[in-house]
Design brief:
3 helices, alpha+beta
């Protein structure tokens, strides 16, 4: 199983509303992209200086499944919104 983790730092303007919107959009992806095995989206509650605002943990059977997910139009729609409302993102992919 391939685990794909992305952490996001959101812009301060409309932060709470934008996080809720992105979370909803991300959580809709498993029903639209069949190579996406599972997905969990979490909003940070610690609010520490080391924290990111949101994390996405998604699972794929293999690299080829992630390669289908990335350019998928439903995913790219979310990516465009994320680019507008975030200042930073970091990613880690690993085999479980």
């Amino acid at each position: 199983m391939l685990v794909h983790i992305v952490m996001f730092q959101f812009k301060e303007e409309n932060k709470e509303a934008n996080m809720a919107r992105v979370k909803e959009m991300l959580e809709a992806l498993p029903s639209k992209i069949n190579t996406l095995h599972s997905m969990e989206v979490g909003i940070d509650i610690s609010r520490s200086e080391r924290s990111f605002d949101m994390v996405l943990v998604s699972m794929f059977e293999e690299q080829a499944a992630l390669d289908i997910y990335v350019p998928h139009p439903a995913h790219q729609e979310v990516v465009q919104v994320i680019k507008e409302v975030t200042t930073l993102s970091k990613v880690v992919d690993y085999i479980q």
